[in-house]
């Protein structure tokens, strides 16, 4: 990167640091398919959920765990909190220095793989835009912090995920597979209508 480009990136970073409300559209288009961080997250949780969401069948509603998440954001991290939106979803907070730090606050590590993949996708996207960034997953209830650096292997994985997401979205709906997380999923009735005797005993 030449000096002029570096200067320009620094200027953009400084603007990001002081703007109270920032919106970045982190999206990659593959054919007609729009790939976003949320889709990357759903890809790692459930392919059926990814397909339904991608076809605008949106049954998500705010539940208790979303409300707890909001309380965590607004309370413990109040000082750092800035409204930053990446592809329509709020990034919990960001610190801008020589390297941009993207922070996400999570209640638990239950969706660890999906959370890491989503944050890695944002780092990948920012890198493509010329921003050097690092990610931090904060688990205040567990008193843990996990740093996410984008490795060359991660970039290969993300590119593979993006291609897979494209195929899933353009294909027919993947059959729902029962998993523990189905019990808390807004699509549960849609997927398992008439099978309400199941209480989530399956392993995965
Ligand atoms: S209910 Fe289960 S199978 Fe259906 S979309 Fe949700 S997580 Fe996937």
From TrEMBL:
GO terms for biological process: defense response to virus. Pfam families: Cas_Cas4. Residues 36-192 form the DUF83 domain. Its EC number is 3.1.12.1. InterPro entries: CRISPR-assoc_prot_Cas4, Dna2/Cas4_DUF83, PDDEXK-like_dom_sf. Keywords: Antiviral defense, Exonuclease, Hydrolase, Iron, Iron-sulfur, Manganese, Metal-binding, Nuclease. GO terms for molecular function: exonuclease activity; iron-sulfur cluster binding; metal ion binding. Mg(2+) or Mn(2+) required for ssDNA cleavage activity. Signal peptide: none annotated. Its cofactor is iron-sulfur cluster; Mg(2+); Mn(2+). It comes from the Archaea. The keyword NAD does not apply. CRISPR (clustered regularly interspaced short palindromic repeat) is an adaptive immune system that provides protection against mobile genetic elements (viruses, transposable elements and conjugative plasmids). CRISPR clusters contain sequences complementary to antecedent mobile elements and target invading nucleic acids. CRISPR clusters are transcribed and processed into CRISPR RNA (crRNA). Belongs to the CRISPR-associated exonuclease Cas4 family. This is CRISPR-associated exonuclease Cas4. It comes from Methanosarcina flavescens. The lineage of its organism: Archaea, Methanobacteriati, Methanobacteriota, Stenosarchaea group, Methanomicrobia.
